[in-house]
Prior knowledge:
The chain is of the alpha+beta class.
Amino acid sequence: METLMTEVEPCHWQLHITTTQPVEFIDLSEPVQALVTGAGRQTGLINIQSLHTTAAIVLNEAEPLLLDDFADLLERAAPCGAPYRHDDLGLRTVNVAPGERVNGHAHCRALLLAASACLNVIDGRLQLGRWQRVFLVELDGPRVRDLSILLIGTGRP
């Protein structure tokens, strides 16, 4: 996995992540904490938003077997090989791009997850529960994914 963080303007960053798997759970907790630390915010809110319709942001536990269970759950909910009207380019006439991917399953999976997460920052630290981690969930990889991160708070600007 390759990542690149760029500051767009004060309080706004973009994180570019190159994913490597069709379905992947990428732990963002450390890079997001590093951003908070580097920005010097002591108290505030950080919002992490996927800029894609086939990727999500979730909070959960980073336990490998549980992550496999999540991937299995997504496969059962929206199987990769099932027929989706979105994938029928003879039927679909809206938002069709050259080289369109067959990814109706990924869009359906994304509907079950959140596109963003807003977290509290207290004493310069993300407020995560004991087992909580922040994940980018890749649903249609491998790809380059862009996240928009907004940090609002008090402390060194």
